[in-house]
Specification:
single chain; alpha+beta; 5-stranded antiparallel β-sheet; two-stranded antiparallel sheet; 4 helices; 7 strands; about 30% helix; globular
């Protein structure tokens, strides 16, 4: 099996945000993915919705045997296991216990109804993402 390099962003703005992000990282590892680099934690205001809850965010680089769609299914499963009830694609942004976004995957350009790689909003529009990704992309 070949290893694919993916850059992910993880964020949480409910409960113990830092612990939630750390738990999601462990679940990534437990699923057979190798975490090869993790950014520092960055606290940021919610983007594209109003909330008094601050986000804790990190960027990470993983090596995975999963295809882009398999990786999407895997991270969505982590979100559900951790208690995330609503996906932003199903009705906009809300507070969330965990959010995991695939930013890049082996330099691939991939567009489907469920997934767009690279993740353009994080790469070109969101300030906090630029800070986290500056040494990862």
């Amino acid at each position: 099996m070949s290893q694919h390099k993916a850059v992910l962003l993880l964020g949480s703005n409910l409960g113990d945000q830092k612990k939630n992000v750390e738990m999601a990282l462990e679940m990534l590892k437990d699923g057979g993915n190798e975490v090869i680099r993790v950014s520092e934690f960055l606290m940021s205001q919610p983007v594209e919705f109003e909330s008094s809850n601050i986000f804790c965010n990190i960027a990470t680089i993983i090596l995975t045997n999963l295809s882009p769609v398999q990786l999407l299914d895997f991270v969505k499963n982590i979100e559900i296991k951790m208690g995330r009830l609503h996906d932003s694609r199903d009705g906009g942004y809300t507070d969330r216990i965990i959010d995991i976004d695939i930013i890049t995957y082996n330099g691939l350009i991939f567009v489907s109804k469920r997934l767009e790689i690279p993740h353009r909003k994080h790469l070109f529009e969101r300030t906090f993402s630029g800070i986290l990704l500056k040494d990862f992309i």
